[in-house]
Amino acid sequence: MNTVNSLSPRTMEEFLAQLRDALRGSDPAMIQDALFDSEDYLRAAIADNAALCESEVMAKVLNDYGTPQEVAGNYRQTDATVQAAIQPAAKPRITANDRQPGWFRRLFNVLLDPHAYGSLFYMLLSVWTGVFYFAYVVTGISLSLGTIVLIFGIPLLILFLGSIRILALVEGRIVEALLGVRMPRRPALPKDPSRTGWIPRIKGFFTDPRTWSTMLYLLLMLPLGVIYFGVSICLLAMALSFLLTPIAALFGEFQIDGVVVNMSHIQILGTDLTTSGWVMLPIFVVLGVLCTLVLLHLARWVGKWHGALAKNLLVIRD
Question: What keyword terms does UniProt attach to this protein (predicted)?
Answer without folding.
Answer: Membrane, Transmembrane, Transmembrane helix
